[in-house]
Design a protein that fits this description.
single chain, about 140 residues, mainly alpha, Arc Repressor Mutant, subunit A, two-stranded antiparallel sheet, 7 helices, about 65% helix
Amino acid sequence: MSVDAAQLWTLNHRLLTVVLDGCVGDLAELGLEAKEFFVLAEVAASPYPAELAAKLIIPKASVTGYVRSLVAKGFMRREIDDADLRRHRLVLTAEGEAARDRALAALAREFDRRLSRIPARDRMELQRILLALLEPSE
């Protein structure tokens, strides 16, 4: 039996979209749009705007807009990088960390609701498969 990789990609994308759609209300209660959430969730790992844009595959101009909005909402701040005074580093505020954590919890609940439809052994197998797919290519 052959597996259509494009169909798997499409199914995966649809699942992620359905889960995110299920959390839109929770994100709105936190004062976040979906794309702002992704920026908020990634800032700790990618604290420089250009790095953030590359990681999220979002145009730099869009990242600038999301950062501006998140700064205005008090979820993050810009700091001068001590190692290179020409660069700004993005840092989450306590409010930003709390919003990120609550948004991640909402996503986890919605995804868990979907995962509960399959047996525990299949969830473990799915985790193994996803981790294998994320390993770097040789």
